[in-house]
Amino acid sequence: MSSQDQASRVLSPVPNRSVCIISHVPSYYFGGSAVQLWGIGKGLASRGYRVSFLSPDPLKGDGLEIEGLKCFRFPFDLTVRRRAILMMPFTTLRIFHLLFKGRSSIYMLTRQDKPGYLAGIVALFCRIFRRRFVYRVAHLWELNAFERRKPILSWRRLPEEFNKALYRFGLRNARAVVCNSEEQATILRRILIKSRIHVIRNGQTIPKIEPHSNDKLVFSLARMDKIKRPELFVELAKLLPQYSFALAGAGPLERMISLEASRVPNLTFLGPVSNEQKEHYFRRAAVFVNSSVAEGFPNTLIEAGIFRVPYVATYDPDDVICRYKIGYHVTDVEGMRDSVTALLEDPEKQHEISQNIRRYVEQHHDISKTVEGYLLILEKIYRDAG
Questions:
Q1: What is the pTM of this model?
Q2: Does domain 3-203+366-385 sit in CATH 3.90.1150.10?
Q3: Is the Cβ–Cβ distance between 300 and 324 less than 8 Å?
Q4: What mean pLDDT is predicted for residues 43-53?
């Protein structure tokens, strides 16, 4: 494309009802946020919005169409090293250039980068070029950027604090900040304009699945990183050698966890799995275990509910596990052991909880309700813009 064509593309009118989502694409990346935003994008497209994705994944082509959605390359290293702060003006200009590919009136982002600076740059782009910015909170821990800390005493902390400042700038200049739990929203309502904070539950397509027998398998699916703590699941398998365990996922700790799992006879480490493989193991599972330190709202809870699998977790978003009696909230690996044993040794209790969790996801996590929530926000933004 010539420079003249590029200029005409940038300066041409932006289509009405157009949304550019900056996110990984699920077919290239293992992560719950990517799955959520992809489902939201497809839902908005089905309601008449022109939806495009800017993806940091290694797409096979620029402007590639995947499941009816246009996906553009966002070939940018989203990690920042200490001295990269000096390159921030060049970084900003390069990201601005890439954002123009989306050619949308609304830009939507969830946190993709560890420091959080991208939220600030996208918000600045939207302010300068009169677009609208919507931010989706993915994890509770990212809100730590708003914590008051001691004055910066070391140059080593300067880049971290600078990137947190950009993150705060991004959220303060967003037309809407979407949370997937009341816990997140409660924190942000003390900091930001309350009317811009919204709670929309994560959602998925809830197919009709008949009750089925299981293999007394204990299953876990997560990114292999420090926050998800997959090593606790390995420890759990060691404590319960009489049961079969399966662990799936990809990430920076994948090699280490694979090595540890190979030493546990009753544990199978699957690595990254396809949707078909994931469904196969959910159908076999009697219990699902989530060992994460914290979450936004775990997609695995919804997936477990679809397949009527009781949920045991070390984090209970908005107390839904206890309130709706869909599993057990525990604090350590010993609690996991006791809860898993109780479920596997009591078929009646397991059946009761499996019915509860299926009923819960049907009532609260259908993707159509999630999309409706985003439509209300986007339509309000357009009305306010006149």
A1: 0.84
A2: no
A3: no
A4: 93
